């Protein structure tokens, strides 16, 4: 299955640069997706701890009790925020990406009824032919 992201960057990048673009996209996805996530969510988890265990040397240990309501709320808010940022960047890419001749041909094809009729397509999927009867 090809994702929308894969299709999108392959259409924007010239053919000779597609391999390096795919490598850069994979690097950026892994770097921005796997490095900050544990840090951000770990910070949120630690922020809403109510009772910390004391280690033997007096330092802070693990959390015993969390403020669950706030923790769940902020987990959802962080996810919604990043989804909105992602949607924003998709919109920016859509807005900036130039319309090519191939795209206009594809967009005009279903609207061009005259050409469809000339090629024998009458809208019922039979191309002007009657269905064969069984019997």
How would you describe this protein?
With 135 residues, the chain is mostly helical. It is 60% helix and 10% strand. The chain is built from 6 helices and 2 strands; from the N terminus they run H-H-H-E-E-H-H-H. The chain has a two-stranded antiparallel sheet. Strand 1 (49-54) and strand 2 (60-66) form a beta hairpin. The longest helix is centred in the middle third of the chain and has 29 residues, at 68-96. The chain is elongated and about 80 Å long. The chain starts with a helix and ends in a 17-residue tail after the last helix. The model has no long low-confidence stretch (mean pLDDT 76).
Structure characteristics:
135 residues; mainly alpha
Helix and strand topology:
Blueprint: H1 4-12, H2 18-34, H3 36-47, E1 49-54, E2 60-66, H4 68-96, H5 101-108, H6 113-118
Antiparallel strand pairs: 1-2
The secondary structure category is mainly alpha
- Biggest β-sheet: strands ordered side by side in the sheet: 1-2
Mean pLDDT comes to 76
Residues in β-strands, percent: 5-15%
The arrangement of helices and strands along the chain is: HHHEEHHH
How far is the first residue's CA from the last residue's CA?
Answer: 42 Å
**Helical fraction:** 55-70%
Number of helices: 6
* Quaternary state of the chains: single chain
- The stretches of 5 or more residues where confidence is low (pLDDT under 50) are none
Number of strands: 2
Cα gyration radius (Å): 27 Å
Coarse morphology: elongated
Q: Largest beta sheet, briefly?
A: 2 strands, antiparallel
